[in-house]
């Protein structure tokens, strides 16, 4: 075992991370914050987005997902569905969980985002919103792309988020096999049924990434999520994962201290004992609702803003563990496609009452987030003017995603109140 561990750590693609999902305590960390390629672990976020759409009523189990020529062209692993044919959303879930089908991942991305590239922007925005500060997605499947980067810590965050945010849907990850047509596909995660307490979640492999695995264990009150990245073979990866679980699960707490991962848009300003209107635009409010405390800011806005060097006094350690790293862009963002006019920070900031819905690391992400908000909350934002304003803090550059065009404080506040129904956090202030 010692020799195996030394060999793994000599591998430049290797990383491992184990966290107590009850308390947030990090039980093991080797290169957990170093950039790595996610490979098919990407599909965990694709499924997160699909589960969220189902929860919001935009998709149901029977919704048909059509295979486009683009989706059909994906490289294996795939189901091989011809372009123009369709599968149900539930079949898509099973195909992603077990077969890790790349064609299905692309089709899901197109169904939810219009295009796979736009869906990847949505995935990245969602990742940042739930605390995955070092992750950038470029596609829905995990097929090779040098700009698609994550960390073992971020993948653990996603593994916990899937359980906390979608407890009912998360059970799909325990599926052992999936029948489609005349074929039956066995889950690539061979630890299911082989290691006590393992209930998911996902494997991944490309030549660049090596063999990856995120595993969840729920056993006799203990809950642990572990990540191994960069294995040299599926067998050695699995053996190393078993070793990490054997060493660390027993260290886990049996006391569940509540959610570790803030739900994007889930903490509302109405829950917070602060006067939002009196905050300066550069301030980051720290929500302390009666239900729970989320460190380092709001799920949508502040978790994408600069992170203070030290946690606020009342912030729980478990949240700090998952969100305590400043956002980082691993590749230069491409300029946003000019779908329509978008005001950027190259012009003077808008005066008067404005609202801010997010603060993101790149202009591209801010642009995408504004467009997405306009689409999702058209009755509220359709007539307002989106713009992006840059600001620098702690040596890092960020981009505020804002809307102007409010004639008064009451209009801006009313817009923020209405945005709650669409699960957006919102800050209203006078920018004069």
From TrEMBL:
<dbReference type="InterPro" id="IPR012338">
    <property type="entry name" value="Beta-lactam/transpept-like"/>
</dbReference>
<dbReference type="InterPro" id="IPR036680">
    <property type="entry name" value="SPOR-like_sf"/>
</dbReference>
<keyword id="KW-0121">Carboxypeptidase</keyword>
<feature type="active site" description="Proton acceptor">
    <location>
        <position position="43"/>
    </location>
</feature>
<dbReference type="GO" id="GO:0008360">
    <property type="term" value="P:regulation of cell shape"/>
</dbReference>
<dbReference type="GO" id="GO:0009252">
    <property type="term" value="P:peptidoglycan biosynthetic process"/>
</dbReference>
<protein>
    <submittedName>
        <fullName>D-alanyl-D-alanine carboxypeptidase</fullName>
    </submittedName>
</protein>
<dbReference type="InterPro" id="IPR007730">
    <property type="entry name" value="SPOR-like_dom"/>
</dbReference>
<feature type="active site" description="Acyl-ester intermediate">
    <location>
        <position position="40"/>
    </location>
</feature>
<dbReference type="InterPro" id="IPR001967">
    <property type="entry name" value="Peptidase_S11_N"/>
</dbReference>
<feature type="domain" description="SPOR">
    <location>
        <begin position="347"/>
        <end position="432"/>
    </location>
</feature>
<dbReference type="GO" id="GO:0006508">
    <property type="term" value="P:proteolysis"/>
</dbReference>
<dbReference type="InterPro" id="IPR018044">
    <property type="entry name" value="Peptidase_S11"/>
</dbReference>
<keyword id="KW-0732">Signal</keyword>
<dbReference type="Pfam" id="PF00768">
    <property type="entry name" value="Peptidase_S11"/>
</dbReference>
<dbReference type="GO" id="GO:0042834">
    <property type="term" value="F:peptidoglycan binding"/>
</dbReference>
<keyword id="KW-0573">Peptidoglycan synthesis</keyword>
<dbReference type="GO" id="GO:0009002">
    <property type="term" value="F:serine-type D-Ala-D-Ala carboxypeptidase activity"/>
</dbReference>
<keyword id="KW-0645">Protease</keyword>
<comment type="similarity">
    <text>Belongs to the peptidase S11 family.</text>
</comment>
<feature type="active site">
    <location>
        <position position="100"/>
    </location>
</feature>
<keyword id="KW-0961">Cell wall biogenesis/degradation</keyword>
<dbReference type="GO" id="GO:0071555">
    <property type="term" value="P:cell wall organization"/>
</dbReference>
<dbReference type="Pfam" id="PF05036">
    <property type="entry name" value="SPOR"/>
</dbReference>
<feature type="binding site">
    <location>
        <position position="202"/>
    </location>
    <ligand>
        <name>substrate</name>
    </ligand>
</feature>
<keyword id="KW-0378">Hydrolase</keyword>
<keyword id="KW-0133">Cell shape</keyword>
């Amino acid at each position: 075992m010692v020799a195996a561990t030394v060999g793994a750590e000599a591998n430049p693609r290797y990383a491992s991370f184990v966290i107590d999902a009850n308390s947030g305590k990090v039980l093991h960390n080797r290169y957990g914050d170093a950039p790595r390629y996610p490979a098919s672990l990407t599909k965990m976020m694709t499924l997160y987005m699909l589960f969220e759409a189902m929860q919001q009523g935009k998709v149901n189990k029977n919704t048909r997902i059509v295979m486009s020529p683009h989706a059909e062209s994906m490289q294996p692993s795939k189901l091989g569905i011809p372009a123009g044919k369709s599968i149900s959303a539930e079949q898509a879930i099973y195909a992603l969980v077990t077969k890790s089908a790349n064609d299905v991942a692309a089709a899901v991305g197109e169904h939810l985002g219009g295009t796979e590239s736009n869906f990847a922007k949505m995935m990245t925005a969602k990742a940042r919103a739930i605390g995955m500060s070092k992750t950038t997605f470029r596609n829905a499947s995990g097929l090779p792309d040098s700009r698609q980067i994550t960390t073992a810590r971020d993948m653990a965050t996603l593994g916990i988020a899937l359980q906390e945010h979608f407890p009912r849907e998360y059970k799909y990850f325990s599926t052992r096999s999936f029948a489609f047509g005349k074929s039956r596909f066995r889950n690539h995660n061979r630890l299911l049924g082989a290691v006590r307490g393992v209930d998911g979640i996902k494997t991944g492999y490309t030549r660049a990434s090596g063999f990856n695995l995120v595993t969840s264990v729920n056993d006799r009150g203990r809950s642990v999520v572990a990540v191994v990245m960069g294995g040299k073979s599926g067998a050695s990866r699995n053996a190393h994962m078993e070793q990490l679980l054997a060493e660390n699960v027993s260290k886990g707490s049996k006391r569940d201290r509540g959610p570790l991962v803030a739900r994007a848009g889930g903490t509302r300003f109405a829950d917070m004992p602060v006067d939002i209107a009196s905050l300066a635009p550069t301030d980051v409010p720290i929500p302390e609702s009666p239900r729970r405390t989320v460190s380092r800011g709001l799920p949508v806005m502040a978790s994408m803003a600069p992170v203070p060097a030290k946690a606020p006094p009342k912030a729980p350690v478990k949240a700090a563990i998952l969100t305590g790293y400043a956002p980082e862009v691993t590749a230069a963002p491409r300029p946003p496609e000019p779908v329509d006019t978008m005001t950027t920070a190259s012009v003077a900031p808008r005066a008067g009452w404005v609202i801010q819905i997010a603060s993101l690391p790149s202009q591209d992400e801010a642009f995408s987030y504004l467009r997405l908000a306009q689409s999702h909350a058209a009755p509220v934002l359709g007539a307002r003017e989106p713009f992006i304003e840059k600001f620098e803090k702690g040596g890092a550059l960020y981009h505020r995603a804002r809307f102007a065009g409010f004639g008064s404080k009451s209009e801006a506040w009313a817009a923020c109140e209405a945005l709650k129904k669409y699960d957006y956090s919102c800050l209203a202030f006078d920018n004069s």
